[in-house]
Specification:
The structure is a homodimer. The first copy, chain A, is α/β, with parallel strands linked by helices. Chain A is built from 13 helices and 18 strands. Chain A folds into two domains: about 250 residues, Acetylglutamate kinase-like (Carbamate kinase, 3-Layer(aba) Sandwich), CATH 3.40.1160.10; about 150 residues, VC0802-like. Chain A starts with a strand and ends in a 6-residue tail after the last helix. Chains A and B meet through helix 2, helix 3 and helix 4 of A and helix 2, helix 3 and helix 4 of B.
Amino acid sequence: MGRLVMKFGGTSVAGLEEIRNAARHVAREVAAGHQVAVVVSAMAGQTDRLVGLSTEAAPMHDAREYDAIVASGEQVTAGLMAIVLQEQGIPARSWAGWQVPIRTDGVHAAARITAIEADQMRKRMEQGQVAVVTGFQGIGPDQRITTLGRGGSDTSAVAIAAALEAACDIYTDVDGIYTTDPRIVPEAHKMPKISYEEMLELASLGAKVLQTRSVELAMVHGVKLRVRSSFEPADVPENANTGPGTLVCDEEDIVEQQVVSGITYSKDEAQISLRRVRDKPGVSAAIFGPLAEAEISVDMIVQNVSADGETANLTFTLATKDLPRALEVLEGAKEKIGFGELNHATGVAKVSVIGIGMRSHAGVASQMFKALADKGINIQLITTSEIKISVLIDAAYTELAVRVLHSAYELDKT
Amino acid sequence: MGRLVMKFGGTSVAGLEEIRNAARHVAREVAAGHQVAVVVSAMAGQTDRLVGLSTEAAPMHDAREYDAIVASGEQVTAGLMAIVLQEQGIPARSWAGWQVPIRTDGVHAAARITAIEADQMRKRMEQGQVAVVTGFQGIGPDQRITTLGRGGSDTSAVAIAAALEAACDIYTDVDGIYTTDPRIVPEAHKMPKISYEEMLELASLGAKVLQTRSVELAMVHGVKLRVRSSFEPADVPENANTGPGTLVCDEEDIVEQQVVSGITYSKDEAQISLRRVRDKPGVSAAIFGPLAEAEISVDMIVQNVSADGETANLTFTLATKDLPRALEVLEGAKEKIGFGELNHATGVAKVSVIGIGMRSHAGVASQMFKALADKGINIQLITTSEIKISVLIDAAYTELAVRVLHSAYELDKT
């Protein structure tokens, strides 16, 4: 029992059929005695339509007007969800971000939530009314509508859960977080639980299930986050032990800690190497400053002393689509940076193993390198974080590497 | 110079091309030194889409949610108009009804404006910023979005003009008010001016150019209302004498008063006659009460003493589509009403002559009857108001009657 925030994304509210289905999930939780707040995205396609209109009106446009336009999408879904809930006999009302109010800073189109004054809404919820809140938006210091940027509905849901001291269920089109991509490894299985830290690594590695920002927020406020599918029948009895979906929580709440929880990969990577870079202070800034200005994101960065002992070799990865622009930027800054040679390669992939258990277990990395070596997979680059090891390999070996590692860390066993 | 409210309806903001064109009209008025507020409708088709979604969600739905959903349409147009104006170098911002705020009563989906607190908006306008306001909506006493009902954007525009002590130009897809339908009478011409009273009669007779409610409001507050086309080029020099379109104003402001200003007609009328109705108090209520409950609008009502001197004959008109239901209702209430005979006819039309000059000129009615009689057109029913005479005739003669009357009152001459 207690308070629960249920968030439904664009595909889960794509049309009235989907909204009715989502409402049945809400009805189940209400029947179970929860006080429920529902957070909704715009109907799939609507945000694109509204963004398209704004851009067509003027490519460079006032972000305040953009926000007013785009925020209308969630307003429609919230109203429809309230109507559908009422139709199913459940008291409900819609709340626009400005009505709650969800206060944000004034950075239009990329606002951050500063406070949620949820007293009125909480009171209504205590009286048994479901609160249907527009995701992705709030009201700025100038009393104008702000939006949180794409995917901001997850962040809205977590922030509202924090304000209401509620749990937060994120309904989406997948039924949880998997040990790896089931299209590559049929033995991949859904994790019942995953720690915030692991989820953050997964999210930043391109697992599109949850916004990085929302996971950070959940971690800071200790909001228990569950990822689950809105397309499962709403009336199936839930597994009492694990619950449906995947629970994202504190590592202390995970009893049987795996050393490695999951394997991820990312293709479409390219690699740039700068050889014989003068090894002096400020040289990294001279390289990555111009790339950042050109809005090119770089990922893995590795620097080594070169053979002559006086210069350095520096290698980094980036998305293949950004490669031509990056090369142009670096050639243009060659004088300033001072490097001997500029090489690049495409057709590489990044494979990562993630696990909070690495902190206390030695040998995770060597196990990875050995497993790959056994299959003749050459490692071109290695980076590590506290709970993650990533390697760059020839993209042709991606699937093989993922399968090998999935077995090596015994993730094939459920 | 001074303040000006410019209202653009759905077809005038149907797409970005139309919005850009409307913005050019705004640019012209700004260049002429006006402080401008623009009131916009939803893009053509959007309101229908949103109403359709609400109805599909539940045929009987919470009007508060309906309002939240439907009001989003104007929000999109207002943002786009502000962006397009800025793109044309004109400072502008959008104002949602709740931001102004435009306060209304709590009758959702059919709210009435109670107050417009325009201080903030006026201040911005004085600084040279165009205010783009969402038409058709406001905020109720419960701090939720209300809508004014269909066509409410005209009412919004006039109310804002009253609050700002501004003139009000209604941009639409016709270039003014005509003496009659030019498709029937090629000699019909645009009136440079028309009085509020005449416009009210025209509006209630089905001239769809202006909402009755907005004309009433303009009359009460003395707002000068101009009906003009948004599809004329924005940069054509205006006629200094009359200005473009038709000005709706006090009759004192119309120097050359015509006796009859215009001829209107309405086909698709049906007629019901109740013969030998017991002539006693309450009988009219017994007839029209059940019809009103069935939401059937009746138009002309004529009652006469019948030949026997003790009972009455009562005839009224209604829309043809409502006839079967009306007959059913009346047969069902036959006992209660007490009538001898129930007749009905379809294929009749109402033709009306309207003119504020009738008040001071005798003989307008007899001139009408004579003109129709000369062409052998039989009059079945007559009703009159202070500035209008309506007759019911065989629908086959509609065009002939309109042409004959247009000549008889010398409206063919410009």
